[in-house]
Design a protein that fits this description.
Elements lengths: L22 E6 L2 E6 L3 E4 L2 E4 L2 H4 L9 E6 L2 E6 L3 E3 L4 E3 L5 H7 L7 E3 L2 E3 L6 E4 L2 E4 L15 E6 L2 E6 L3 E3 L4 E3 L14 E5 L2 E5 L4 E4 L2 E4 L13 E5 L2 E5 L4 E2 L6 E2 L2 H4 L8 E6 L2 E6 L3 E4 L2 E4 L14 E6 L2 E6 L3 E3 L10 E3 H11 L1
Antiparallel strand pairs: 1-2, 3-4, 5-6, 7-8, 9-10, 11-12, 13-14, 15-16, 17-18, 19-20, 21-22, 23-24, 25-26, 27-28, 29-30, 31-32
Organism: Sparus aurata
Subcellular location: Secreted
Pfam family, one: EGF_CA
């Protein structure tokens, strides 16, 4: 005879002694399961602690620390520079904002590295013992870092270059300012001369300053010319002129030898004689100067007579001739002078006597 009976599952997990310590009871239909808690393993009817530190290869757990087993778990004893979150060793960031102010020395930057940190000096500083000291770039043994025509100014951790007065900074160097480009730099009567880093206002050549104006300099007061030359003053200058009969630029003068330089300086019957700055023409004997001409002298017309009284005078160009008359013989003087003719009888007597 079949009877309709309802069977109800028994929840064994309500009984405290159902599962071993360090396990969790899970009820099932008509039974139950005992699941060991994390960190434990089932050994027979027991849940035994797992020694995680021994079960893993060295270094798999607690990198940068030491693994220590605990009931149902483990914990890490971390090396210096690391902190434990329980099951791992985390790097301590010494450079975090909360620690940075006290970790590194002034003028350095904190750089975190695993388990530690570094404090390299900032650019422009160098490590001297435990301090970061400023590098004076302006006294570098290899030379100043600034360009020519500028001054180097050291600052904490850096430097700056300042161009000298009269120079403008460019992308690479200091460029001279041409103050003379501005027409108002100097007075209207002055000349502006640009100089490296400066300029100069001066009177033009041939002028000098008097009562804040430029006046002409009379160079001829202390003549720069040759002693024989004449100095002519001009506005802002002067000129030198050699006198007539001299050649040169005025700073030197040399006598012109007209007797050589001129083709026919004198009359054909005259001789040329050079003199300083000029020349003279001297007529040949037998000629007389009449202006630029040399005219023949008629010696036969001279009052004192040029021939012997017994001779006749014949004029010719540049001279004359005396011819003894009949009964007279010429002496060796050939008629020159008053003793140029002798009586023929006296002449014969004189010849006979000598024989």
């Amino acid at each position: 005879m079949w009877m309709n009976v309802n069977c109800e599952d028994i929840n064994e997990c309500l009984l405290n002694s159902t599962c071993p310590e360090h396990s969790t009871c899970i009820n099932t239909n008509g039974s139950r399961l005992c699941i060991c808690d994390g960190g434990f393993s089932s050994v027979g009817d027991l849940c035994v602690d797992i020694d995680e530190c021994a079960a893993m290869e060295p270094g798999e757990l607690c990198t940068n620390g030491t693994c220590t087993n605990a009931i149902g778990s483990y914990y890490c004893e971390c090396f210096k520079g690391f902190w434990s979150n329980g099951t791992d060793c985390m790097d301590v960031d010494e450079c975090s904002d909360s620690l940075n102010s006290s970790v590194c020395q002034p003028h350095s930057t904190c750089i975190n590295i695993p388990g530690s940190y570094r404090c390299p000096c900032n650019e422009g500083f160098f490590l001297n013992g435990t301090e970061c000291q400023d590098v004076d770039e302006c006294h570098d043994p290899d030379g100043t870092p600034c360009p020519e025509n500028s001054s180097c100014n050291n600052t904490a951790g850096s430097f700056f270059c300042l161009c000298y007065p009269g120079y403008n900074p460019t992308s690479l160097d200091c460029e001279d300012i041409d103050e003379c480009k501005d027409n108002t730099t100097c007075r209207f009567d002055q000349v502006c001369t640009n100089l490296p880093g400066a300029y100069n206002c001066s009177c033009p050549l041939g002028y000098h300053e008097e009562n804040q104006i430029c006046v002409d300099t009379s160079e001829c007061e202390d003549s720069p010319c040759h002693p024989l030359a004449r100095c002519w003053n001009t506005p802002g200058s002067f000129s030198c002129h050699c006198p007539l009969g001299f050649a040169g630029n005025g700073s030197w003068c040399k006598d012109v030898d007209e007797c050589v330089a001129l083709t026919k300086p004198c009359h054909p019957q005259a001789r040329c004689h050079n003199t300083p700055g000029s020349f003279v023409c001297v007529c040949n004997p037998g000629f007389v100067s009449v202006g630029p001409l040399c005219v023949d002298v008629d010696e036969c017309q001279q009052a004192d007579g040029q021939c012997h009284s017994a001779a006749s005078c014949s004029n010719h160009v540049g001279g004359f001739k005396c011819s003894c008359g009949h009964g007279w013989n010429a002496t060796k003087h050939n008629g020159r002078g008053k003793g140029g003719c002798v009586d023929l009888d006296d002449f014969l007597f004189f010849v006979a006597k000598e024989q």
